[in-house]
Amino acid sequence: SQGALPLFSSLPRQNSLMVIAPYRHHGTWVFDDASAGLVKEPFVGGVPEMIDLLVADIPHAEKGFRLIFSAQAFPGFQKRLDWLRGDSLGNFYALDDPPLEGWICPALFKYYAEPPKHLYVRAEALDE
């Protein structure tokens, strides 16, 4: 088995496109997802730098933006993250251009039963 085992008992969602609205809190990117039981869930370990790239052209992104992600490619995706490896808690994904590596925490298992080989992402302003 690749990656870590799910640590949450709720079943992952089966939607093909997922949407969250990250924002800055105490200097890092976080997000809330009441349906997944997540409040101010932080992005850490290289992922904030990936988010900074995605939102570079979104004014006031720190107040909140829409992040669309999927295990399948979708029209208009900005970047593809490739699964590298799992550890006892989370999973490492890599971005090719620019070359970055980030760790995605166990909250990933709120959305997927096992870590996808690829994550396709797009950031948009909330008012789009």
Give a written overview of the molecule.
The protein has one domain. The protein is built from 1 helix and 9 strands, in the order ββββαβββββ. The N terminus is likely disordered. The strands form 2 sheets. The protein has a 6-stranded antiparallel beta sheet with strand order 1-5-9-6-7-8, with helices on one face. By secondary structure, it is mostly beta strands. Strand 6 and strand 7 form a beta hairpin. The N and C termini lie far apart (39 Å).
Cα shape? globular
**DSSP helix fraction:** under 10%
The overall average pLDDT, rounded, is 88
Strand content: 35-45%
Compute the separation of the termini in Å: 39 Å
In what order do the strands lie side by side in the largest sheet? Answer: 1-5-9-6-7-8
Number of helices: 1
Number of strand elements: 9
List the uncertain runs.
1-11
Number of domains: 1
Strand-and-helix sequence, N→C? EEEEHEEEEE
**Over all CA atoms, what is the radius of gyration?**
14 Å
Structural class: mainly beta
Largest sheet: 6 strands, antiparallel
Could you outline the blueprint of secondary structure elements for this entry?
Blueprint: E1 18-20, E2 23-25, E3 28-33, E4 38-42, H1 47-54, E5 65-70, E6 79-86, E7 91-95, E8 100-104, E9 118-125
Keywords:
128 residues, mainly beta, six-stranded antiparallel β-sheet, three-stranded antiparallel β-sheet, 1 helix, 6% helix, disordered N terminus
Overview in brief:
By secondary structure, the protein is mainly beta. The protein has one helix at 47-54; strands at residues 18-20, 23-25, 28-33, 38-42, 65-70, 79-86, 91-95, 100-104, 118-125.
